Amino acid sequence: MALLTVRNLHARVAGKDILKGIDLEVAPGEVHAIMGPNGSGKSTLASVLAGRDGYEVTQGEVLFDGKPLLELSPEARAAAGVFLAFQYPVEIPGVGNIHFLRTALNAQRRAKGLEELDAMDFLQLAKEKSKLVQLDAAFMNRSVNEGFSGGEKKRNEIFQMAVLEPRLAILDETDSGLDIDALRTVAGGVNALRSPERGMVLITHYQRLLDYIVPDKVHVIAAGRIVRSGGRELALELEEKGYGWLGLDGGKAK
Ligand code: ADP
Ligand code: MG
Ligand code: MG
């Protein structure tokens, strides 16, 4: 069974129809890359899956593990094993990164009927996982995202994913300020977290990232629809020929 099924998804933001019939199926173990011109609806898709306020679904459905996802609160989605990296990009002064993450992990453990981790056990786990992205201990004690550089935010995102071990991870790589070292670290973390049970949706307009994370499938969104799907070679073709080759210009399908 597919891990994530998106069927004919239509969504509206600020009174404007943005998603106009998205169909997507992600099986366990697969990494899907979603690409497309600026303003085509990539982040809107991620926001709808996250359950962000202000995004109105007008048609279609989303199933996670065969169950309706859209009726769940953002918190319930997270507890069920859906990880949306940018769910936490907001700066939360005064709340330590580590405290924040423990709360999220324990919510997930409660949902699974597991015992919560105490501070000591959690710290142990966090230290182990932090090695994956070369985050140092001082970093963990800083407030959530407060004063983090672009690269640190990305590392933290992967660190959160490593701790929460989601079944489905949706990463919206909107940050263009990722230097090559951070890019490699993020890609290394993502690759280390690939597993036969886990699906990942990686939203990016940088083909470069896909030199490090080789996707199973690539989709191009334009004007709120998936206009092309293929394997890794599709990303390479886009790199070479640009979106113009698909008859797309500025996010508008011709
Ligand atoms: P992408 O991530 O592909 O660059 P987005 O999903 O961010 O595109 O945006 C798609 C369209 O929706 C754009 O025209 C954008 O201006 C509009 N949009 C997205 N979010 C909002 C919002 N909160 N309010 C108004 N318009 C929005
Ligand atoms: Mg954009
Ligand atoms: Mg975007």
From TrEMBL:
InterPro entries: AAA+_ATPase, ABC_transporter-like_ATP-bd, FeS-cluster_ATPase_SufC, P-loop_NTPase. This is FeS assembly ATPase SufC. Belongs to the ABC transporter superfamily. Ycf16 family. SMART domains: AAA (SM00382). It holds the Pfam family ABC_tran. Keywords: ATP-binding, Nucleotide-binding. Signal peptide: none annotated. Residues 4-248 form the ABC transporter domain. It comes from the Bacteria. It comes from Myxococcus xanthus (strain DK1622). PANTHER family: ABC TRANSPORTER I FAMILY MEMBER 6, CHLOROPLASTIC. GO terms for molecular function: ATP binding; ATP hydrolysis activity. Transmembrane segments: none annotated. The keyword Nucleotide-binding applies.
